Amino acid sequence: MNQIIIHVDMDAFYASVETRDNPSLRGKPLIIGSLPGERGVVATCSYEARKFGVHSAMNIKEAYRLCPQGIYMHPNFEKYKAVSNQLHNIWDDYSTASETIALDEAYLDVTKTARTFDGARKIALTIKKRTLDELGLSCSVGVAYSKTAAKTASEENKPNGYFEIENKEAFVNLMIDRDVRALYTVGAKTAEKLYAAGINTVRDIQQNREKVIGLLGKQGYRLSQLSLGIDNRRVVPYLPQNAKSISRELTFQEDVSDDELVKDVMLLLALCVQRRAERYELYGKGVTLKITYSDMKNITRSKLVLACENAMDIYREAVKLFDQTQKRPIRLIGVGIYNLSHEGARQLSLDDFLDSPQSSSEEELNSELNRLGNKYHLDFYGHLDDIYKHETLHKTAEYMRKHN
Question: What's this model's pTM, rounded to 2 decimal places?
Answer without folding.
Answer: 0.77
